[in-house]
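Q: What residues go here?
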């Protein structure tokens, strides 16, 4: 049995769905169900007795200790986090609370559980911490992609909180010997992506006839990975990764934001043309930039390929087509997500950028 945290969110729910597509090893899924957590993502597991969902906070030490004692997992995969950079700019508190304090509490409880295991169980145990390329800061156009040895230079409250959690995870290995793995991944996209993030926001806004807000000049570069490739990389690191090691995960797909928006528009023109026959790109609107906006991220994913044999299986072209089609096929999911609190966020983030 393994315990995952934050697996009612975007990447975690894809991870659990993919897990059960290949295995019947039980998963305890601990998720606080913040605005980003959505049990609809896991609806297909409703009757699966091997999926045990528990609503709760990674920072709730008593609850986590109880779950560990009861279920005795062989591994923890920590997805739980506040994940949206713009929200961290409007209100950093929750990011510090979950990403830093929450991870610290989780590590403390896991350490106590792990030190009570038998020698063999202790050796085989893993704590996999899911982190981000944003901890490395921003690259100039000519600089090489981030390797695992790149210095930490986080620039947003979000990335600073993730960097802090990475350091804690590292320290628990060096100080206490906890068998940890850290993965630092680039931008994900795919099914169940909450439409506050660039790609799903553009799809949802385009179809609703709203403007497509591009921050600044739209020339910021991100390195995109289809979410299911991220999930396979995490499974690979969990099974083959060396405790204490860090693995960068990326798709070798550096794209400027404006190119991403153009691609989404082109696919929608083909798959669901506007009723007036005009192209969706007419809806693009350049708006005020994100404060402290990182210009470029790029991941050098050669270590995980060389040492663990992982490679992405989707190209950006295949992955983005699947993603746009998924949103077209899952309008009910989209409509249910666009709740009152979602509308409040959109109002808050975009009103002042106009
Ligand atoms: P998300 O915001 O979609 O989901 C986060 C999940 O964590 C939600 O289900 C939420 O309810 C849960 N959660 C939040 N606080 C919690 C708490 N205190 N206790 C328990 N559960 C809590 O995020 P995501 O995009 O799926 O990202 C998952 C992880 O992957 C994060 O750690 C993020 O930093 C990392 N990551 C994301 C990306 C990306 O492109 N989305 C890329 C690299 C790394
Ligand atoms: O790099 C990994 C990170 O990718 C993860 O750690 C984060 O959890 C995840 O949210 C993502 O962060 P970004 O800030 O890169 O993702 P976002 O989708 O918010 O923005 C992608 C780019 O698009 C970024 O340069 C900002 C820009 N953008 C975003 C939105 C929401 C726009 O131009 N307009 C928008 O409306």
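A:
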């Amino acid at each position: 049995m393994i315990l995952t945290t934050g697996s009612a969110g975007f990447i975690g729910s894809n991870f659990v769905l993919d897990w059960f597509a290949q295995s019947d090893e039980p998963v305890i899924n601990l998720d606080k169900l913040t605005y980003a957590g959505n049990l609809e993502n896991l609806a297909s597991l409703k009757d699966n007795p091997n999926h045990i969902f528990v609503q709760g906070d990674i920072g709730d030490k008593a609850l986590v200790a109880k779950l560990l004692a009861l279920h005795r997992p062989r591994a923890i995969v920590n997805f739980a986090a506040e994940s949206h950079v713009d929200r961290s700019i409007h209100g950093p508190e929750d990011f510090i609370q979950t990403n830093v304090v929450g991870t610290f509490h989780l590590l403390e409880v896991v350490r106590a559980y792990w030190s009570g295991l038998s020698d063999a169980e202790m050796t085989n145990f893993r704590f996999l911490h899911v982190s981000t390329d944003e901890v490395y800061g921003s690259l100039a156009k000519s600089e090489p992609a981030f390797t695992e040895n790149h210095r930490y230079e986080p620039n947003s409250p979000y990335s600073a909180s993730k960097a802090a959690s990475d350091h804690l995870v590292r320290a628990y290995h060096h100080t206490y010997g906890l068998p940890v793995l850290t993965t630092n991944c680039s931008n994900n996209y795919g099914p169940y992506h909450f439409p506050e993030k660039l790609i799903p926001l553009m799809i949802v806004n385009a179809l609703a006839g709203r403007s497509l807000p591009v921050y600044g000049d739209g020339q910021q570069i991100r390195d995109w990975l289809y979410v299911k490739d991220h999930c396979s990389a995490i499974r690979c690191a969990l099974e083959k990764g060396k405790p204490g090691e860090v693995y960068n995960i990326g798709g070798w797909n550096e794209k400027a934001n404006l190119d991403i928006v153009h691609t989404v528009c082109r696919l929608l023109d083909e798959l669901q043309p506007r009723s007036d026959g005009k192209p969706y790109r007419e809806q693009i609107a350049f708006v005020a930039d994100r404060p402290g906006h990182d210009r470029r991220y790029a991941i050098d994913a050669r270590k995980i390929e060389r040492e663990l044999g992982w490679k992405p299986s989707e190209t950006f072209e295949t992955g983005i087509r699947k993603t746009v089609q998924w949103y077209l096929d899952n309008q009910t999911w989209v409509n249910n997500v666009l709740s009152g609190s979602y509308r409040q966020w959109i109002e808050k983030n975009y009103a002042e950028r106009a």
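A: Context that may help when evaluating the design: The pocket of DAU (ligand 2) is lined by residues 83-85, 132-134, 186-187, 197-198, 201, 213-215, 220, 222, 257, 290, 297 (CB under 6 Å). The two ends are 49 Å apart (CA to CA).
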